[in-house]
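Hi V.,

Quick status before I head out on leave. The structure for the redesign project is tokenized and pasted below; the design run finished overnight.
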């Protein structure tokens, strides 16, 4: 599917991986609906990107808010042909910690945002995509989710985060199989350690140490590299129902 002339919803689009993806879409000639809770950052980015970008304050875990994001894309641009789910949080907490057992609320919050929030936007955007006319190749839409290498080699203290991202991995194939009859593809990317707002808050010494853990290239991943893979997925119709690790060959140690 071409990016040019098509509309993509990007959750978590105000910063990090989502912002880089939104920028890539606009630069490639597409239209980007940036959906995020970070209103100031999102609105500023949309202004910077110009008339083919819009920002909508969105809580991906809320049905009404999610419907509002899809409705805004349809109202502003007339259609929805793509969804890139980048909204998510990191949660670090031990199951049996010094202060007691893992909080149930912490586990539920990670799953609610990372997994249920992702599914919420998938179901709503997919419904809109089914109404599109197919292109010459029979495609009506493309969905790209963000998992994590933690889904496969989660570290100590990442039970909630790993479980939520493993859920994203687990639903990729069955949803791709279901939506195939509509010509809608579903893929997931599992990033390694990337330059996100959270990591940018670490000291330079810690960032360098994290980067050295990556076999090659021995550095943190760049959001633009994530966006580049999103573009490759959108443009290659044979990519469907799979999870791609984007991690420089890293395999996370237990801690």
């Amino acid at each position: 599917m071409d990016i040019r002339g098509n509309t993509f919803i990007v959750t978590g689009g105000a910063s990090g991986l989502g912002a880089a993806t939104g920028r890539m879409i606009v630069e490639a000639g597409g239209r980007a609906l940036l959906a995020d809770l970070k209103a100031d950052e999102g609105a500023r980015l949309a202004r910077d990107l110009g008339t083919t970008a819009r920002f909508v304050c969105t809580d991906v875990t809320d049905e009404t808010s999610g419907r509002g994001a899809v409705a805004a894309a349809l109202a502003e641009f007339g259609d929805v042909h793509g969804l890139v789910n980048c909204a998510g949080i990191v949660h670090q907490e031990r199951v049996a910690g010094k202060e007691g057992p893992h909080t149930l609320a912490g586990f539920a919050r990670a799953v609610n945002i990372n997994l249920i929030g992702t599914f919420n936007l998938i179901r709503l955007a997919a419904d809109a995509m089914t109404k599109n006319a197919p292109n010459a190749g029979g495609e009506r839409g493309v969905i790209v989710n963000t998992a994590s290498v933690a889904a496969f080699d989660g570290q100590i203290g990442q039970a909630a985060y790993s479980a939520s991202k493993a859920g994203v991995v687990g639903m990729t194939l069955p949803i791709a199989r279901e939506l195939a009859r509509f010509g809608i593809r579903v893929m997931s990317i599992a990033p390694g350690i990337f330059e996100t707002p959270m990591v940018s808050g670490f000291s330079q010494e810690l960032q360098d140490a994290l980067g050295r853990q990556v076999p090659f290239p021995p550095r943190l991943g760049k959001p633009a590299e994530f966006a580049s893979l999103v573009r490759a997925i959108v443009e290659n119709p044979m990519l469907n129902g799979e999870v791609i690790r984007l991690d420089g060959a890293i395999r996370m140690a237990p801690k």
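Above is the designed sequence. The two ends are 40 Å apart (CA to CA).

G. will cover questions while I'm gone.

Best,
W.
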